[in-house]
Design goal:
18% strand; Rossmann fold; globular
Length: 261
Amino acid sequence: MKIKANGITFNCQLDGREGAPWLVLSNSLATDLHMWDEQAEQLRDRYRVLRYDQRGHGQSDAPAGRYTFDLLIDDIIALMDALGVKRTHWCGISMGGATGMGAVRRHPDRFDRLIICDTPGQSTPTTAAQWEERIASAQKGGMQAQLESTIARWFPPETVKANPPHLDKLRKMIMNTPVNGFVGGSAALANHDFRPGMRGVQRPMLYMCGEKDGHNAATMRLMQQEFPASKYIELPGAGHISNMDQPALFTKAMREFLSAT
């Protein structure tokens, strides 16, 4: 379904019965709402699941320019308003995880439980420079220039060598990402820092990361220590797109956390 919000048209999908608690799933850079197929199927029995293609991704509009997380946060709040979602659980990976971190700080009354996955929660001068290099590469060579280097960053070598079916699914998502969306999202990732404000968050928080997700796993362990009220789960063998690498474990952790009292 297509929904107009915050000045553009978003592609969304709803699963589960009306009246059930809301659960919003937010995609990473260079993917779309189908990255959540497994989780939506398994959780629709208990939740009204909203998946959406972030600005510049999938079948949502892809305006040119550098996006910011303030803009991405405005997007989801406007989308929730358009759909009548007053309060929701949240799960996001990478860019989607950072969007959730910023959103709960600005709009704490709109969220219940949050699951933040595979994101450091901040950029650094080093990562900002890396994002600028990727922006320049995509502008010059399109998404083909990003394809295999992105897969290599997202997954450990043994997974890339085994080439399970979800890697081909992700390759298609990467190739179908508009360059404008990749550039815009990369610009947001190059300039954000949500970690200092997380101590003040009063909502239940689960940090989750793939064991093989490079520095993100170590960083998220530190994030949990900075916010002692939160929990941390590391998924064995999983890379950056941990929900697709370990779908059963990821979904089990979601279900247990969201249903905890």
